[in-house]
Amino acid sequence: MLLSEMPGYTYPTLATFPFRWYETNRWLIYALKLLPSGDLKWLPDYVESEGHAKAHNYATQEEARQVASSFNEGIAERIEMLGLSEPQKTSVTLKAEKEITVQERLADEELLMLTEALRRHASSPRPAAQDLILPSELQGLHEDLVRQLEEAPYLQIINFPRYRVALARTKEFDWTHRLSPSKKCAVYCVREKIARGFGFSGTDHWGKTKAAIRALLLPRANQLLQHASIQKILLEAKSRGQRVVVMSGFVFWYEENGKPGWVVKTIGGDSASGSGQTIWHEGTIISKNHGRIVVLPYIKENGEKVQGHTKNSSHDGKAIPRHPDEYIELPFEILSGDLMIGLLGELPYE
User: Fold this and answer.
1) Are residues 340 and 240 in the same domain?
2) Which pLDDT belongs to residue 346?
3) Is the same domain home to 251 and 229?
4) Secondary element (H or E) of residue 265
5) Of 169, 267, 308, 323, whose CB count within 10 A is highest?
6) For residues 96-131, b (16+ Cβ closer than 10 Å) or e, as one string?
7) Which superkingdom (predicted)?
């Protein structure tokens, strides 16, 4: 098909972001399109190749995100050129920024979890190549199977996109059980690389699995407080008057009441939800309790600004309140999620 014939081609593109192409292990660029209704929708992006439309894709997530990030620097300019009214312009800008924020957080979080899963098994024994058992007709997969188990020896299901084959482990070295190579199976195999590294299955409920992994990662984040690199970052932040530093899904929080020092909290879902909210970077966080979750200040689609705050999760019970004289209002700073991934990777592991 011609590029001009692709769905959504005539709708303005405001931003782009890469999504995993599960069936191929590549990364597809999606375009955030402004529909005639005023809604925003992610649609596959295409490039022209020999006169025809071709999926805009890359071999690695890193390369794809660099391309998308460069394009997204021009969001404001593109919206400015649409001739919208001021209220419409504000609404569309907030929606677009929210969409990018949500996708970046999800991508950073899953990359952090994958990094930790692989690190936890860095010293785990790898199977000898000659011990692996494959179906007789699939001996051509042997080298690929060895490579994937060398990276993640804990895997129980593996996808081989190039051959449109998926296999499950039935015994320690037996990979003769074939799975239906559907898109759902490909999704499960990708999740397996994260989930199984923490003792879960890639076929488990993904939201519940990630919630459990976040809880397992919190002690690791606490270890960073003793790490020279993070101490330097926090010292520099404190010298600039910052008391809250956000990296990926973790918040480094300087507590002055009681015993002064940095503690680790987690980011609440409110400021990263799918309900049309975006981060209000100029806002502050007012803490009226000692909750372990920090909700960053955000702006609703209607322009209403919501103050950042602290709270507990619904399972933790009510957060211990501060005395009104001890309420604190703090500015915050968001750093690159890649920084957290790098720092966790430098820690010694059992």
Assistant:
1) yes
2) 56
3) yes
4) strand 261-267
5) 308
6) bbbbbbbbbbebbbbbbbbbbbbbbbeeeeebeeee
7) Bacteria
Low-confidence ranges of the chain (pLDDT < 70): 257-259, 269-278, 301, 314-316, 336-350
Crossing angle of helices 337-346 and 206-223, in 10° steps, is 60
Give the pLDDT confidence score for residue 256 in this predicted structure: 77
From 86, 101, 90, 72, select the one nearest 14 (Cα to Cα): 72
- Clarify whether residues 98 and 176 are in a common domain: no
pLDDT of residue 278: 62
Quick one: pLDDT at residue 312? 83
Residue 255: what pLDDT?
Answer: 80
Number of domains within the chain: 3
Looking at the fold, whether 53 and 169 belong to one and the same domain comes out as no
41: in domain: yes
The tokens of 207 are what? 């939201």
Which are the contacts of 3, defined by CB distance < 8 A and separation ≥ 6? 9, 46, 47, 48, 52, 53
| Structural domain contains residue 209 | no
Do β-strands 261-267 and 293-295 pair in parallel, antiparallel, or remain unpaired? parallel
What's the confidence (pLDDT) of residue 12? 96
- Please state the pTM of the whole predicted model: 0.78
Q: Are residues 225 and 339 in the same domain?
A: yes
Pair of tokens at residue 304? 């209403």
Question: 13 lies in which domain range?
Answer: 3-118
pLDDT at position 68:
97
Q: Is the dihedral of CA 319, 324, 326, 330 positive or negative?
A: positive
